[in-house]
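## Example pair
The file below holds two records. Each record gives the amino-acid sequence first, followed by its structure token line.
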Amino acid sequence: MKNSLRIPQLRLFAVVVLLLLGLAITVGSTLAADDSITLQETLTGKYEVTNGAIGLDGTAPGTITVNVPGTPSNVFLYWTGRGSGSGDDTITISINGGAATSITADQSSVYSSNTGFPPAALHFVYAKVLNAASFNTGINTVTVSDMTIYENHGAGLSVYSTDPSFQEVSLSRYWGLDGFFVGWTGEFGPNSQLVCQSFSAATSPRVMQVGMFVGGVDGADRPNSIWYQVGSGPQPVGSIVDAVGATEIATDITNTTPPLTGDQNQNGRQSYDLFERGISVPAASTWACFQIESRNDGSLLGASALWHGLTTALAPAGTTAVNLSAIDANSLPVMTPLLALAALLAAASLLLLHRRRSAR
């Protein structure tokens, strides 16, 4: 009789834990919808954007280095991760070798990664606007430490700068939460959402510099491709993977690995990629669309990732390439006693999450 009661009791306990986790997440932060990358703003002027990124899977610190032309005008720092509990909206940074300073994200977003994982498995995106006066023309560094998400991805930096000698560009910033994996369905997969940008036709050909920030890919053995399509008339809907007229970027610039490997960054550590590429835009074109594909390749599982940043700069053809990306976000998670209790009760789910990483 005693043994017959153990299973129902354990099930009841599990239900209570999951309800507490769900309530804690609801109280602590606003869950964002997946496939929610949207246009944040478009600027026109004499801008250049210099990006850097580092992987922080495991233990921070890491240092981002950027060589900034012109006068810095806007600076964005962002970091991402995946795991359980409340994430980590407060980290420590040092700018250009200065004093270590604790900073708290201005904004953040979080969502449950998939119903196939424990409810404690979440994606986290954080953003902080830094003081542009702390940055100079030339070499700048930002050292990031004290990032303690269960699965740290990494950190990225975008420095906007201006100068009268710069080419005038149309600069667009997109941000959102988009987790995807070939083994998932609906809003979580198998591929990323399709992100399209609209613009006016021109009298001469143009070039668009594209920057993507993607967290979570954990190796070159997780197949993926980046697709884009440029055109006029009705925009594609749903997917451009394998579509007529779309272009596949199946490898990095060395033609030896997928475009996203988790270590396409400055320190070669997992799990954060900064992907940048220039594409041609014919004069008559009025839109450009982008999508990331996760695909299996024989015994290799497709990439499981979090795409959160896209920046484009549209300029006349022949313009010197500039490196672009940015991020924005909303609603910080708040640590509450209920959240802390739920995190303790969910400790066992961390082990389960760790064991199931190979299935992503």
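Second record, same layout:
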Amino acid sequence: MKKTISIFSLFFCLNSYPAQNHFYSFSDDAFKKEIDELLISVKSHLIGSIEVPAETHMTNRVFLSTMYDAATDTLNIAHNDHPSIIHEFGHHVFDYNLVKNIPIWDYFKVRNSIKYKEISKVLPGKKVELQKWKKSLAQRSNSSSYRKYAGKKIKELTGEINDLERVLPYDSDYAAIINTSNIFKRLTPYQELFADVMTINYLDDWESIYDSALLITGNPQESEFRKFTLINDLEYDYKDPYSHFISFKSYLRNKHKNAKDINLSCAYSTIADNLEKDLVSTKGTSISDMNGILITDYGHCLEALTQP
């Protein structure tokens, strides 16, 4: 299902997000324009509900699937199926907000970028390397090509050092968790849930994400956990992250007449807050209990919005 993108929303977002979408290896200008307009519209829809990444970097590698790579913050677009593109963009939005709001995820991403080496051991070397590049630049400042190359390296190293210094204080709290727990595996059910909710909310279509999954996989059984059903007759499958929050999905379907009525701000805060608790916890919570917690927290968030 493709949602009509209004001229007004495009104008609004183009003025709100300068240079927001960056395209690499796109050979079809019409396809690039289609994706650009789609994501501008989605970003417009999200304004006021959740913070939106100012920039989105996209590739068009058709030999890969449409997917978001959290390590490089890059969205690969392999086809023009809008629900799956919006879903993967939802991962980008979720990741962007987690980094800003959940310290353990910020810490995990930085540790991942240095292949889980100890920050206190990597940081001094990065600082020494930065000084070498600065000294080298000063000695060869007459070369415009070298100034450009060295300037890029200095910018990269400065960013890496800033990231390392930002998360270094979390070492004592999170190092042991990162070293002994599969953080990404624990994240996956939550990020898939948010991306599905964001997609059906934008398209105002409860069936859109299921239809998209079915179109791509051709497997009804594999796609059934993507449903937002009025009556939940599915059973949790611990091995399938899409199945973990089927009760919460059913709750949303019964709570709201239309998918567009879901409060995305409450949905994000409910999912993100419980993800953080899960990541830092040494004890797991059963899938059934976690669905109950999400339902309760989302309901409380909606109630809080009506309070004077």
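Notes on the second record: The CA atoms of residues 132 and 154 lie 10 Å apart. Strands lie at 21-24, 56-59, 67-69, 74-76.
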